[in-house]
Amino acid sequence: MSRDVEAFLVERGLGAMERRLRLGGRLSLDGAPEQPAELCLTGSGTWVVVHDGRFVGSSLNTADATRVRYQCGRLSDRLIVDEQTLNVPTGRAGDARRMIALGRLRSQERDRPPLRPLSRDRYVDADDELARELVALLLSRGDDLIALVELGRDEAASALGPSVERTHYFVLSAEQALLATLAELGDFASESLNAASLRVESHVDGPSLSDGQGVRRIDPKRKALVAELCELGRLAPAERLSEAARRLHVSAQASRVRQLLAAAERRGDALSSLLALALACHAGSEGVRAELSRCVTRLRASGVTAEAVSEGFRRWQFAPSAGRELLSELSLLGADAEPWALALHRTLRARAAAERDTSDDRLSRWDVELAEHELLAGEPARARSLAEARLRALGPDEDAAFAPIHDTQPTLSRLRLYEVLCREAHGRGVDDVQALAALARLEPLSEARLLSLSKAQSDEPTAQRLIARAKQVKSLLAPSGLSSVSSKGLSDSPLPFDSSTLEQRLRHPLARGSGRLATRLSELVAAVPEPDLGFLRDFCEELSESRHADAARALMRASRLLGLPHVSAYVSHGARSVGLRAFGSSEPFVLIGERHLSASGDYALSGSEFDFALGAELAHLAFGHQRVTAGEVWAGAAGKTKNALAALGFVLPVVVDLGGARTQRLLGRLGAEAFERATRGALRLPELFAPRVAGSGEPIGQRNEELILAHRLVQLSADRAGLAIAQDLGGALRAMLLSRADYRELASAAATSGLVQALETRRSHSPAVADLMVRVRAIVAFYLSPDFETLALDGAG
User: Fold this and answer.
1) ∠ CA(763), CA(767), CA(773), 5° rounding?
2) What is the pTM of this model?
3) What is the pLDDT of residue 667?
4) Measured between alpha carbons, how far is 464 from 449 in angstroms, rounded to an integer?
């Protein structure tokens, strides 16, 4: 039966059937015999149909109020056609009324555009099929809906007879403003408004919408929204669409935003196309790159200014993350994307700075990228200003100091910012020597960085000294660079470093003040029991000034510079014949391995090498450091433990706890043979610690990481003091390599391949070599720093 009625409707040219409702009763149309009747909805209207097969039958449009009436009942409704009553099935009254309403709207004589989907948001109150039909009826082809807002409801008589509910709407589109009324049975009326004169007025009996010619009462709850739409109505079509899209966007109602922007773009608003592409980039849409090129062409052809782009993105309140994708795509267009890309970048960076949850790292990244962009876009002064401001705001880069294998975000930011300064200066035909030096300090073992600094040109004396030092560093790190004899030790009698120099220039920057690592360091250097010097006098010979004049000279000079009282020195032999180790007590002393005193030995130290080695060791005393074993540090047992054998103090050239008084008394009673066995066993302690750490299956914990960092800080501070005393980087590097037995092989490798290559190939296999690499990086960086420059000018040497 349904196929018969579908075929009948098509045969009569009424359109395809969308839905049907069988009515109760029989109907005779145009004198034909009575037959069962159906209510059918098609694209052309709603029809009462009686038929006998595909070719025989009659139909009547329910929009014909002269022949059709509708009666509403308590239990069921009735449809009166030519005074013949047809019953609407019980429970289907709502379906019948909607079909009739839709049909009557579709029967209006006008060129209706295709139906468009609607979605509810702050500007659209209805999205059902009646609303879609109403919009299609009201808007001409090419017009675009902005708002369909309900103003209120009442009841009125329908042209089909009964009194039914009707709804009053305010309709705003790109090209017009309207008042529209739609009743339950499809009764429809509309009235055009003067959009330029729209306003909301307040009256005693409630608010109303006025265009200067008529007044329409509105629901008080809708007053603010209607007033907002009145503002939009006073704008030109393209601007009206774009502003409506913006307000929906900032209200987090995005379903129609891109649709409205596309409509604004069709009306010639080139900025809307860029805004739409920003949304598309954030959503991961494809084909953005090709469309972006066309968008840039439209921006240029339309004369859109950079200020307009900046203001547009500021008002749209795009999240910085949403704009970053667009910036990334714009950057691929190069100079063609300017000046709009730069304006957008500045706006997004300002937005990021204003957000409370923007981390320092993220803001630093914005500054780095914008500084690079400013330079590339021909704004060098702004690039330099931004780079310098961000560099001042960056804190110490702890990870770069302690774990140079992995670049951290602050390190990368500093590198890129200093490169901006260098490129800006190069554009002016000069070298920024301070920026080049900063890059060399951040990557002190990079041949390229050192080469750039060594080739720089400057008439300024400080810069010239920096350039000379860079040339020396480059030479020392090259193959055979450390093979030459170190410089003769200095024999002057300088004034001691003042407390400010010790704390603010010699102590490592991260160990100064009250920062987290400095506080942790103070915990690690808590006082330990003083050693028994009688024990040393029994087993070690005292340093002789006549036999070891160079070492005695260096000891006296370092003690004076560091402001230390008399420091005794003892020579250790046998398994303890390599390394220098200072111990603090009421009578401070230093142990010097006898192989460093033998002029012809493999570990012999001389001149500035002694100055560095003894200066660094005595600096531990000046800074108040106590000794902690390397094994304990890596095993996570460092700090206040008292179970480290005193023998370790003579064996390992690191900071070590000499142990308690009871241990000293016990060692004092041991014979020479027993003591030798103890020290040999002590040498194996790192091996015993390593399996326990590696086999735990867990990474080093936070506390142990802090212990390792603090251990390194102790040594880095001491190294800085040693270099300040020696004033010879070559001597300092040679002393580092000769002060440990397991570093001696590195010295040979450095002669062949250079120190950097020797360290690189071995650091992954040995924590000790990894620590040495940190020390070498740090001391080279210090040698190229303003702190060292000041000490050199002050005549520290």
Assistant:
1) 50
2) 0.73
3) 38
4) 16
